[in-house]
Fold:
Amino acid sequence: MEKFITHIQPPGRFSLGLKELWQYRELFYFFTWRDIKVKYKQTYLGILWALIQPLGMMLLFTLLFSRTLKIDTAPVVYPIFVLSGLILWNLFSASISHAGDSMIQNAHIIKKIYFPRLIIPGSAVLLALFDFLIGLLIFLVFCVLYRQSLHWYSVFYFAAGIIIVTLAGFGTGTFLAALNVKYRDFRYMIPFLLQLLFFSSQIIYPLRSISQEWLRNLLSFNPVNTSIAYFRAALGAPPPEMEETMAGLSFTLILLIAGLYFFRKTEAYFADIV
Amino acid sequence: MKPAIDIRKLGKQYRLHEAPPYLSLRDVLSKAPWEWTGKGKKADPYFWALQNINLCIEPGERVGIIGRNGAGKSTLLKIISRITPPTCGEAFIHGRVGSLLEVGTGFHPELSGRENIFLNGSILGLKKTEIRRQLDAIIDFSGVEKFIDSPLKHYSSGMQLRLAFAVAAHLEPEILLIDEVLAVGDMEFQKKCLGKMEEVSHKDGRTILFVSHNMSYIRSLCNKALLLDNGRLIAGGNSEEIISQYISSVRTNTPDTGSKATTPPVVQLLSVNSITTSFQQSDSFAADETIGIEMEYEVLSPGHVLWLGYNLHNEEGINVFDTHSVNTAEYSEPHATGKFKAVAWIPGHMLNTGLYFISCAVFNHTSQVIYLHEKDVLAFHVYDVFDRQTARGMSPGEFPGILRPLLKWHIEKSKA
Structure:
């Protein structure tokens, strides 16, 4: 019985509560499992939906940009180029929109049962990762179809890209999730924010094609750009420069710390206001 | 042995909002920037939902928490179950806490019954292996094994509830918090649940905190009771004593006779009691039981036509009915002197469950005299029964309505 001693007191000093998150690790699994099940349960095509969207976009952008506008993406062929950007972008945007909405979606549970609240936006990001892994699989199939050369070190580049974009999505998502509980306006701001970010990310164009240096520097703070740069480095494009990496990485960390800090600071009162 | 729950100087303050509890960005932006942080603006009124609670509950104790609506009962459970933090003070909980603040939390209509058992169980704090071990027992207890693999949305609300309670009943926490869950479910299932709870509390020696308006459940399940009033803990101890203290405390103790009563007094009130059909005093009645309201009084001077009257208020202060002694001889002829007893019988199957307050009066409307008027001299309690037919029938949950009459229904085939 000595194992379970709970000390209840008014919210005090900041802590991440990692130990507690570990105790509740199964709940991560169950929330993610529920969301995946529910998402694909009543659809005829099921998990294929996770593929149709990026492939459709890839087709559209390939027709538009590689034929009509002729964007130079060498050494990566345009369909692969754009698909690599799209799957990472989808991971980022799904993380943000799922996580941002998650606290309100699960308000009925928050009001009734205690568990570390971070599990909710956390498992929303895991759901996005699940969809991403399916997208990644099809991406690799396309790489083989287009005879895109991959090296052994590509694995590290892929991993770096995925980790950066997931952390950035998680940080932004938790921040918006906490804000959403307090100010419902952010619900309506998320789609707009995402559209803005879509065009400031090098999904359909390479960052180096931007001629103004200040703009290029500014955009390199976008973690999605850093992440995509690593993905494309795995395909043989030149890896991002040190400054570019540091810019994206530092901004990712800022987002993550700000998101977690704000979330943990406000979560105690979620049940009172949600 | 360490106490299971040790609460010290606990308090919870809420802000009273006129607007919806969440803010909109516009509300903030429309203020001057120096007001954004909230420091410059006029403070919202605060109120203490709980104040200075000190409490020690030993392992194995079964504690009922009683008090009027808004006394802070549910807030206390919410703090113990960590759903909401206290504003001040602290509490130490030794042991795992399981709460049945709402059964079926996290149920998803698209998932099957079996899947929902896993989801709900893990939200309630069970490990996957524990759920798997108990799965058969849970399904068996719920009585919905035939539908266990079809989506929850095809279940009736009664079936969903059975499943939910089945999961909750198989939690094995050292400390169990229960908030009025017994007010739900059909009769047969209620009995099953009550049995399960008794089994859990008596046999396994688990600590139970039980919030209910149903005094008879508290009587049968709890050995101790706590009485909350306006966020303060005003009494604690033997459940039988606390329940009678509660019922007598809800009366307003200041007789409202003074100004309106006649001088010299014509009538003196000796006592008011609620009684059963066998004339036993009681403060709790089953929903189908006849309730007698008995008034003992002494008429001091002759020659007055006296009307006796009661009015009945429920817990929300709604005047449920007034009744006057219209069928008595004394209603039209002068009342003899001496001591008398008058009883008015409230038929069974009439009042809904809850707490009721009786005010009594002796008066005469034609001569516009009030000889005696005492507000809330008596409180009694009406509770649900599940092993006999009542107006509730098979319907689960709170049964709405101020009254709950069992009416005669008649169905016949209409002529074409």
